[in-house]
Design brief:
alpha+beta, 5-stranded mixed β-sheet, 8 helices, 50% helix, globular
């Protein structure tokens, strides 16, 4: 099971050697190289807009590296495009805990404030946020009511959202993270033409444009 975007590693080694062309140097998009068609398409929560799903996990180091770029990129999206973050579980106990972590914070309105700090705590400070106790103690240190968080963490609604996220991941056939899906139809691919995370987001922009054109033709 591939639970992290390992193909980035080989790509980055070549990119740093200066031998890769920039992905956005090409004007055309190629199925199977720039994007994967998802058939049948997966449902979205905002059908009136182009929804970009970011499948991710707090446990994933590549997601941590990508996070500040995604946050900045998302702030510049046009009004007709929305980013939706979906924490994966891969039926793995630790990834499932991380997914509950995300949805519990979202339920109490703290995810946006603490998102970057969580990645920093796990991947830079090497804190062992591995179970409800350690996670609750950490959020309490960030001025979050521990009982309020614990209630959310164990709520039926959070459990349902974790299961729904896992079903969405399976329906979209996502095998590693980070992974981006545009409007439930196209997964952005990390081909050999990608020169780092910046190019990956620029390629995502181009696939969003492709989908916007398709929508206008209907």
């Amino acid at each position: 099971m591939q639970t992290c975007f390992s193909q980035w590693i080989a790509v980055f080694l070549l990119a740093f050697a200066g031998v890769l062309p920039s992905a956005h140097a090409r004007d055309s998009l190629t199925a199977g190289e720039d994007y994967r068609v998802i058939a049948p398409p997966v449902s979205t929560d905002t059908p009136e807009k182009i929804e970009v799903i970011e499948f991710f996990s707090y446990a994933c180091p590549h997601c941590s590296e990508l996070n500040p770029l995604v946050t900045s990129w998302a702030s510049r999206l046009p009004s007709g495009v929305v980013l939706k973050r979906v924490p994966v579980s891969f039926n793995n106990p630790f990834y499932t805990i991380m997914a509950r972590f995300y949805y519990a914070l979202e339920a109490i309105g703290e995810e946006g404030r603490l998102n970057a700090a969580i990645f920093d705590a796990i991947h830079n400070k090497n804190l062992r946020l591995v179970d409800e106790k350690s996670i609750t103690e950490w959020v309490a240190s960030k001025n979050v009511d521990p009982k309020k968080f614990s209630d959310a963490f164990n709520a039926f609604g959070v459990d349902s959202r974790v299961k729904r996220a896992e079903q969405l991941r399976r329906d979209a056939k996502i095998n590693g993270v980070p992974a981006f899906v545009v409007d439930g139809r196209y997964q952005v691919m990390s081909s050999a033409s990608i020169n780092g995370y910046g190019d990956f987001l620029k390629l995502t922009d181009k696939i969003i444009e492709k989908r916007a054109i398709e929508r206008r033709k209907k």
